[in-house]
Amino acid sequence: MRRWMKKWQGVIIWVIAIAFVAGMIWWSVSINLRGTPRNVNYTLDQSLAYITKDGTALTDPTYWLMPWEVNDYYSNLLSSYRINSLDPLFEEPRLKALIADVFLQQKVILYYAEKNNIKPSKKEVEQEVKSIINTIKNDQNQLDQIKRRYGSLSVYEKDYLEPQIRVQLTVKKVQEAVGAVSEDEIKQYFEENKEELQNQYDRVDLEAISFDSSSTVQEFLTKANEMDFDEAASSMGLTVQPFSNATRGIFPEEIDTALFSATPGSIVGPFYFLDQWYVFRVKTSSVLTDFNAFENSDAYSEVKTKLEQEKFQKWLEEFMKEENVSYAFNVQVLEYWWRYLKNEEGLYEKLSDLLFQEDRLVEEASDELKSLFVLLSDTKIQDLTQRIAEMTQYEEALKNSQKPDEDLVKKYGELSLEEVARKKQELENEKNTVENRKRTVVNYLYSNYPSSTYVLEYAYQMNPNDINIRYNYYSNLYNQIKPYLSMGSYDPNQVLRTMLGLYTVANATDASTDMRLDSYYMLYDMSLALKDPTSAKFYLDEMKNLDPSFIDYESAYNQVESLLKELETEESTPSTATGE
Question: With a threshold of 0.90, does the pTM exceed it?
């Protein structure tokens, strides 16, 4: 389930990245989001972050990032994907930091444009505005919304839409100027990365037939030369298995080479692998054989966009360095999460000093910083674990009078056995400190956010024997899985894991009666959704033994009986249809 959440988070972040590259992040042209009122004065202190030049804040509010900019875009992004909310501790601050980063980048673009007098013509702005206004006029619902929000269409056009279109076109012009990629650059990239691109983008649609003996293969090939592939298979009672959109690497190299060099319609094989003979027919083929094929494929535009983005980012970094332009933050949470996205070194140590006074957690600190500390602790523990293992390897080599691995010597220097032992002990002590501080933070978060999926997962990992945490953890998984059971779109392994976890709670001697009853009921409910009446009845019986008045058992048993009859009917239907 956590993988599912990460998938959605990845989708949203990818949308933002693509939107920025395409110059379409200027959401204010959308009726669903608010514009900035004119003649409203903001102060620098009200901003989330701002652009500095030579360490001094730029005085033009254009270069200030205001809270509503991030919050509005965040809300509408979730709304567009019909997501009510993300985890407030682990997902929301990360996504808002990414949105803030995009906005800060575009404000640097506007600074560059102003400095270099890059701006759209009056005619370009008017044409774009006219196109959008005509679209609005043809949508009565949208037109009514604008009139309610802005008073009139003309006010919206002049005070809100036109300024944003001017900004949008300015950004586009800068991007086209600094991020343009020539044909020669794309061609060079193709030649240098041809094999990688082929592995990523080459596709073939295949039909395959498997055989138990070589003699049957030869008989089929003879018939296939005389008649159609499908007809030959049908005449011998063979099953044709389709393989749509097959990529390189699915089959052994010999077969890959033959399939991806074959022309559509050709029969390829026979090949012997996995204890059977196989013959393939290539139906369609999309292979990046040369630059011309690449240029006419979907891969071309994706690679072009990627190169443009990389070139733009390189330009941005160089421009900011040359002009001594940087970002400053007024909000600590946003700053730390932004630095986390940038993989800043030493961030764990800085945050640890901020959150702990000796070994006491500073509870007054923002909870979003505490959740970030947990993520940074994971990385720190992983790094320390690796270094301890390397010290152990170094130590074993010295104990056996062997020369330590060259990479270890290069990394840690020439060490004596005593020095290695001392270094290893220091690392183990540091790891213990990190783990203890992580545990302190997780326990705090669990006491304040017991319904957070991320918090529950961390709490359960660190306290697997705590019956209350275990109950809350698996109850949370149940609530997430339940909507997908009836649709059939679920991970069987995750369902099994959840049911096993709930069963351990239902049978735990240290669990309260209420916990046990709730766990049995969730198991009963999942069994019904999975169309398993036998298990559902078993859980009902267990519930009734614990508390005969917990639910309306008569109704519950009736549901089980109805499911049994439904399944019996489904099983008997095929026999009735065939007259057996």
Answer: no
